[in-house]
Amino acid sequence: MSFESTPYKDKKVISIGIVSELTGLSFRQIRYYEERKLIFPERNEKGTRRYSFSDIEKLVEIANKREEGVQTHEIRKEMKQERTKSVEKNVLKDMLRGQFNAHFRNNNNNSM
């Protein structure tokens, strides 16, 4: 996916300092959630972590769940299940779109 086609919420352009200010999380907490594979920042050419607005939203959700006592491995499991559901939903949408396109293409060809 090229940078230009990436939705603004998913562009990895925000420094860890800004993320910390916006979320109220310490640098250490943010890095810990990365170590636990809950978030996946990119690194620029100097090795500096870069986050997206989507990452910030995810970090707030993680922090809220942690305050409720949910363990990081449970959060990771939930996130994996959500990704799986999302992928399945997208596959179903694509299948339906293909069926609709095929149906209407055949109907348009038959009416000529």
Structure characteristics:
two-stranded antiparallel sheet, repressor, 2 strands, Multidrug-efflux Transporter Regulator, Chain: A, Domain 2, mainly alpha, DNA-binding, MerR family transcriptional regulator, single chain, 63% helix, transcription regulation, 112 residues
Folded structure, characterized:
InterPro entries: DNA-bd_dom_put_sf, MerR-type_HTH_dom, MerR_fam. Residues 13-81 form the HTH merR-type domain. This is MerR family transcriptional regulator. It is a single chain. This protein is mainly alpha-helical and 112 residues long. It folds into 2 domains: 1-70, Multidrug-efflux Transporter Regulator, Chain: A, Domain 2 (Orthogonal Bundle); 74-112. Helix content is 63%, strand content 4%. The protein contains 4 helices and 2 strands. The chain has helices at 16-23, 27-35, 53-67, 72-110; strands at residues 42-43, 49-50. It has a two-stranded antiparallel sheet. A hairpin with a 5-residue loop joins strand 1 and strand 2. The two termini are 39 Å apart.
Helices and strands, with pairings:
Layout: H1 16-23, H2 27-35, E1 42-43, E2 49-50, H3 53-67, H4 72-110
Antiparallel strand pairs: 1-2
Strand content bin: under 5%
User: How many angstroms separate the termini?
Assistant: 39 Å
Strand line-up of the largest beta sheet: 1-2
Q: What class do helices, strands and sheet pairing give?
A: mainly alpha
What is the structure about, briefly put?
With 112 residues, the chain is mainly α. The protein has 4 helices and 2 strands.
